Amino acid sequence: MEVLYEDNHIIIVNKASGEIVQGDKTGDKPLVETLKEWIKEKYAKPGNVFCGVVHRLDRPVSGIVVFAKTSKALARMNEMFRNGEVKKTYWAITRNQPPKHEDSLTHYITTTERNNKSYASTAPRHGAKEAVLSYRHISSSDRYHLLEVNLMTGRKHQIRVQLSAIGCTIRGDLKYGDKRSNPDGSISLMARHISFTHPVSGKFIDVTAPIPDNDNLWKAITQNLATEK
Predict the structure, then answer these.
(1) Rg from Cα positions in the chain
(2) Domain boundaries in the chain?
(3) What Cα–Cα distance (Å) separates residue 203 from each residue in 9, 53, 89?
(4) What are the residue ranges of helices labelled H in the chain?
(5) How far apart are the first and last CA of the chain?
(6) Cβ contact 39:10 at 8 Å
(7) Report field, pTM of the whole predicted structure over 0.90
(8) DSSP secondary structure string for all residues of 115-137
(9) Model confidence over 5-48: pLDDT tens digits?
(10) What backbone torsions phi and psi does residue 119 show, to the nearest 5 degrees?
(11) How far apart (Å, rounded) are the C-alpha atoms in residues 222 and 40?
(12) Which class is 2-228 in CATH?
């Protein structure tokens, strides 16, 4: 487990693809429990350790996840997420180049629990929630394209379903239309960057996750990014 930032109230970690943030029906050990054990051992804490889940990432997605170490921080971080006071940036590798270099997308998303899948419509419909994001095409390799994505709303599978809706399925994302899976079962989507005002101290928190080091495509396409800059 890679800790990117820690203080008395919050801890930010770099989640590996394949990990679940919270427990689910699979029964697999979630990241929050691993983190509790890590905190307990590191600080020799007696009794139960508090570790609150502030937000989640889909299992096949890697990158930044924020946890709260105190109930005060959890309540305030939850409020900040609800109010859009947390800036999150994602990187996605897609097989197709988007129709525009940069754009804002608005869809209306419904989710079916039976197959754990979201569906995007361009028009409002009963039960659908508005989903808004912006993207920017920042690099390419010979066959793939790297998009920087900023979320304005937080809907289930939002980036995956909205990019798929414009013909830009994320590499490895079979659920939303990609042609083949990644060897490790991941999808090529990562929570790259997060910034916000600390819920207790008030200082500015700005954290960037490293790119996955077990995937040569991530290395190649971000090397192109550095060259293009």
Answers:
(1) 18
(2) 2-228
(3) 12, 21, 20
(4) 31-42, 71-82, 158-165, 216-228
(5) 31
(6) no
(7) yes
(8) TTEEEEESS--TT-EEEEEEEEE
(9) 999 999 999 999 999 998 787 888 999 999 999 999 999 998 89
(10) -130, 135
(11) 37
(12) alpha beta
